[in-house]
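**Entry details**
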Amino acid sequence: MLLSFRAKLFAISLVLLALFMAVVGLYLHHTLQDWTETRIQDDLHSRAILVADVLDHIDEPRRAPQLIDSLQTEPEQRITLVDSRGIVLADTALSEGELAQATDRLDRPEIQSALEEGSGFARRHSESVGTDLLYVAVMPDRGDMVVRVSLPLREVDEALSRLRLLLLAGGLLGLGIAIAMSSMASNMMSRTLQNVIDRARSGERATSGELEEVSHSLRDVTHRLEQTMDTLSNERDRFRAVIDGMSEGVVATDDEFVVTLTNRAAAQVLRSDEFLDGEPLSRLMPAEVIDELVAELKHRGEVRFDFETGGTASRCIDVRVTPRPDTDGYILVFHDVTTLRRLETMRRDFVANVSHELRTPVSVIQANAETLLDGALDSPEHAQSFTDSIHRHSERLSRLISELLDISRIEAGEWEFHIEPLDLRSSVDTVVEHVKESTGEEVQFDVDVAEELRVRGDSGALEQVLINLCENAAKYGGADHPITIRSRTRDDRVVVEVCDRGPGIAEEHRHRIFERFYRVDPGRSTEAGSTGLGLSIVKHLVTSMDGDVGYRPRDGGGSIFWFSLPVG
């Protein structure tokens, strides 16, 4: 037999309320039981520690039974003293005769835990007492015995029984109220529907008109709801597509700075793979930055500032914060400006370094020229010295400008690289001859490069790399020891090493030697005619040929500059 609408509504309400009462009852029962047992367990543990402390201060072990009896504070409390072998030494619940017949307690879990870890807990049912007992065991500092304190959980069981009765009574009362309210609600709804049906049955025209009116109204409401839902869905999709298509990271928060909306760019800018909605803003920004933001927002309507992220790879993030006009929240727009700030720093350093490097030779040339014009030309000895100085610094100035142009061409992509298989030994021999002629000194080379070895690269770039490294080795390595050029194959790469016996490079300078204008010893480098750009050019050229470059100290003193290129 099918149930009526009124009966179905009543049955659903009754079932939901019954399920709610059952879930609440089970939750309260479990919570109260755990809380009570935890309180009792903590109390027993404190008592056991107190007894153990007292036992640590007695000199005669035979006094332990009398001492245990004197420490019993409750009639149902039981204190047991067991030695490390499990033999019962004293028990407040046993007479002397029963104590002599007591079985070994070493198999009790709380005793084992106390012997191994210093303390143990267990709950077991006692047939003699007729209820569960909670046991707590601890080991005194003397380490030759275990103190166990137990207490029946009868009070807990009685409290839970009373709670079950109260929950049952409350549930029955709630069910009664629910039955009455559900009956009234279902009666009202069924009466309204029955009135429509009765009026529809009273006459065909009236029935048709009223039913059509009701049906039309329902269809109209349904159609409008569908249109509204479609509009909201389309607007939501368009909005999501717009913010996800933005390159800037967008984060919306409420007035408590809890994230309510993010886009994909925000996760990329802030390097977060987690679902951020509903999380505090402190998950994305340092707490001190948020405090500064709150203070600034009190005085201004919009705030914009930079902050540094933590971690090993620190980044600079630009954020603009604007209050939301519709709510009390905020809109935050993030930009990763790490590269921009690094470029700005590089530009400032570059301008400062270039100005410094150009100022020295220009000042020397100007001073020498003025001295010559003031009369030094009439003195052949001084004229020769000043002229040599002008020539030397003009060469340095020319070399500096040439290397600056080389770096600019490489960074701008104007250096045309023709990557092809190259004979490495032939390139090395050409460079060795060039360095010997350009230095004008008796520089010795020890070449250990296989004749058939080939690499992939640009011939001009490869020779420039070798020239820079060899000239550095000749300047700082001295003429007392030969410069070694050797190669080896590693996987699909060829590693070329240029070794010298110079003073080497201290560890604190090694990570910066490939920076532009960086010199380990500025005074000596200037005397040697160094511009501080040679190693930077080496790094740019090798990287452009899909290679790596690096430095390591040489055993016994000296330096090893190496670079690797693909096998040709």
About this structure: Confidence is low (pLDDT under 50) at residues 203-207, 523-529. The chain has four domains: 6-159, 245-336, 341-410, 417-566.
